[in-house]
Amino acid sequence: MSVCVSPPLSLPISQEDVPNIALLGSGGGERAAVGMLGSLHQLAQDNLLGSLLYMCGVSGTTWCMSSLYSDPDWSLNKRCDEVIKKLKGPTVGLKKAVDWLKQWKDSDQDFTLTNFWGAFTASYFMKEMDTRRLSDDAHRNSTNPYPIYSAIELNRNKQHCTEAVWFEMTPHESGFSGLGAFVPTSCFRSQFEDGIMTEKRKEMDMVLLQGVCGSAIADRQMDTAYVGKKIWHVLFEGQDSMMLKENMNMVGGSRKVEVCECVPSQVVWCVSELMVNAEDPDPLKTWKVITTLRQLLEGHVSSKGEMLWNMDSESWKRTSLEERKKFIETVSLELILTSDSWTKDWKDQRCTCNGSIWWIVQNIFPLLIKWEWGTTCNFLFKFQDTRVPKWMADQEKIHLVDAALKMNSPYPPILRTSRKVDLIISLDFSKEDPFETVFSAKQYADELKLHFPPVKESVREEKDHPQDCYVFEGRCPEEPTIMHMPLFNLRNCKGEEEIKKEREKYTTFQLHYGVSDIEHLLKKAQDNLKNNKDRILEQILLAVKRRKNRKSVAQVFICGVKYFLSTLWEYLYFNYLRMTTFASLHS
């Protein structure tokens, strides 16, 4: 049988000589999602998508992947264009996101901040709520590269464990790459004991998967207050807030904001006004808001919230701007984090916001205090096997979060020897050092004694001015070759200064990009792949040769074994005859 790896190669080869090629996308929030889309769009233009066997992502690139795979034939259709168009369009309505959250809260015992982050990521960044399940992709078009999503176990990562940290999820199985322990994806999140399912639970959909894979903010090194204010800003502040869009109507041909009259919505609006105007030099502007808050919240605030009543208008006027800012920040944050204390008793008949704002304030913001992420049943609970560490078998629950917190590129699933990957195309969308992922992967491979090509330490010196492509060649057929491609480089940027500006412009933790920013970033990513098309083709051809060499080595080994066995048989047989003859002569 003969097959062609991809049209540009025009190289008929036997099926067993077709190399296993993996495309890796690093993390980086929306920067990574857009960069991955641009890269895939160019690979499709160059007829190279068909050469990929695996597509692996962490963090932001998984957002891109989940959107693409909603079309079972995306690699044959124009799905990349559709996703790009959605990225430039409006966000999903707040009510739709909250309806999804309500369903999960009612049906899932492990409702955490990950659920909220999934709804936020899907509706705000990717702008679609895709409720299909990952296991649904198991029976879809095999022309698509096989998707592998990555996360890590949070507690094990804190303990610097290697084997039981990296968690991969595919349409067929999910589990720990280092341990080689997996469960069918359709059963993932269900309750197990000693390998036997004791309770079938709801499988995660793609919205929740995005929450798990993209939850870099779960890292406790980030200030809870910072995260709380960020979420508040996205939901309730500014011209692009979800609350504003939810309550904005066309009145007389112009856009008019109509905030619901229910108390929670009014409080939310007041807190947002305080935070927006905290640096206003006019103290009367914020004092009016404080007065309104005092009226709304009387008898419904915690101890720190009592600060609202400890200030009078004259004292407020005499207070310095810096002191007012500190006061507003303290009161606002306290109200955000203790929202249950001032919402639980209200049943406001004037509510016209369908409860979305109220529900978020009551059910999501209290979770910031608990700070629980990615909780799910451990399928290895009480599993009796020496290969499973005891501390892992003792845990009834595990906590899965963004894999970029350990390694910002999904090397572990691809380095598994069973996948026999020949060529890795690594797209690095990291904000800073574009080589950190390669060295982290090498360390991981060394610790688990996996094949990995040599990487010169000297490339670190180019982290501020990288080339567009680096090739780290495998030294033997079992060792993959890696093509490493930094997003911003000396070829698509005019020098080190422009690279620095691009990195500063496209930060990881920022609100979604505007249309012009998306188009600019798409072009940067597309140019990288377009500029390196010939090098990719060259490495594919070399991978074919390595495949053949691997087969030749195996054939030589088999022939050697056969020769040895036949020689051994002859020796034993003739020795037996000699001994038999000798015995008969002496009988």
From TrEMBL:
Protein name: Cytosolic phospholipase A2 zeta-like
Keywords: Hydrolase, Lipid degradation, Lipid metabolism
Alphabetical list of PROSITE patterns matching this protein: PLA2C
Recorded superkingdom: Eukaryota
PANTHER family: CYTOSOLIC PHOSPHOLIPASE A2, CYTOSOLIC PHOSPHOLIPASE A2 GAMMA
Domain called PLA2c: residue spans: 1-570
Keyword Zinc-finger belongs to the record: no
Species in which this protein is naturally found: Salmo trutta
SMART domains linked to this entry: PLAc
Coiled coil: none
SUPFAM superfamilies assigned: FabD/lysophospholipase-like (SSF52151)
Gene Ontology molecular-function annotations: calcium ion binding; calcium-dependent phospholipase A2 activity; calcium-dependent phospholipid binding
InterPro entries named among the record's database cross-references: Acyl_Trfase/lysoPLipase (IPR016035), LysoPLipase_cat_dom (IPR002642)
Gene this protein is translated from: LOC115194415
GO biological process, one term: glycerophospholipid catabolic process
One Gene Ontology cellular component: cytosol
